[in-house]
Amino acid sequence: MPNTVSFSRHSTNVFFHILTQCNLSCRHCYINSDQQGDQILSLETITAWLKVFARSGKHSNLILLGGEPTLHPELDQVVKSARHMGYGSITIDTNGYLFHDILNKVRPHEVDYFSFSLDGATEATNDAIRGKGSYEACTAGIRAAVQQGFAVSLIYTVSGGNIHELAFMPLLLKELGVRRFFIQVMGLRGKAAGSGMEALQVVDRAAWTTVIPEISRQAARLGIPATYPKVFLDPDEPFECAGLVAENYFIFPNGRVYRCPLCEDYPLHSFRMAEDELVPTEKINETDLFRLQIPEGCVMNKLLQPGNLSYRDDGTPAYKIACCMLKEEISGT
Ligand code: SF4
Ligand code: SF4
């Protein structure tokens, strides 16, 4: 049985986009540099901002993101600074190109996970979404990281263009030496919004609640715990908005700090970094939206991607859409 992973009240998750540049141009990329900035943050600024989020006294998890974070020439120094500040876990999300010889500049005890993104079990499917050569680069990067003793996880963003290959992933993960499997649902953000990707969005409840848990169970049986967004809630299941009950911060190079990833295409951020301090933004911002209670569950989902909602004849929702950060987890134990 999957375990629903409730939002933690005792830890802080810091999703830090240290730049938005990338060597790839994936079809579903959620980065929107018009809204998020195109600066490459200096090591000095990154360190100053990391200190702000380390101050809470809670256990803090740091996820370093881009763009492609390994394009930052001082990523290794960022990792070492964060360790020094006491971040409890550090993950580097990467498309697998591993620039600046990063595997030789950090040590396995400094990085909890390198998290690779692969969107197909075959080169044809992955490269149609992420670009020519990206399958080979990603799988070569995984092998190199595993060989050097790093723990590796893999993120597979499910869409209508690759759901048919999900069944091949558990064995591929095992063969590559991947330790954790994260399945994501494609969101209509960044480049995917308004670009015709709607047709590829997998939001069908039947597919999501049968295919995804089954593949996750298969991975778990091979010893690879799998995590995926819950997405759908029965009308009587409790709904919670992580923006109100959890400490998640999504930081961008232009200083915007969001609490909800679905808001990142809009100037709705709750905070901004000003003179290296976290400052609340004026109303109206995402926090005002979090407080709206609607029978469909997540407010931002209803505003941005209402196509995944369904209604009964009497006009009431057939189900609620969960917070995008609510996860199910299946492990082999
Ligand atoms: S999805 Fe990631 S790897 Fe792909 S273009 Fe965007 S930032 Fe780069
Ligand atoms: S995804 Fe929806 S429920 Fe989750 S933080 Fe954003 S607005 Fe709240």
Question: How does this structure look, described?
Answer:
The chain is α/β, with parallel strands linked by helices and 333 residues long. The chain has a domain at 12-237 and 324-330: Alpha-Beta Barrel (TIM Barrel), CATH 3.20.20. Helices cover 27% and strands 21% of the residues. The protein is built from ten helices and 15 strands. The chain has helices at 33-36, 43-54, 75-85, 123-130, 134-147, 169-176, 205-221, 242-245, 286-290, 299-304, and strands at residues 3-5, 11-17, 59-65, 89-94, 113-117, 152-158, 180-185, 226-229, 232-233, 247-251, 256-258, 271-274, 277-280, 320-321, 327-330. The protein has a 13-stranded mixed sheet. Helix 6 links the parallel strand 6 and strand 7 (180-185). Helix 2 (43-54) packs parallel to helix 3 and helix 6 (169-176) packs parallel to helix 7. The radius of gyration is 19 Å and the shape is globular. The structure holds iron/sulfur cluster (SF4) (2 copies). The site of one iron/sulfur cluster has 13 residues, from helix 8 and helix 10.
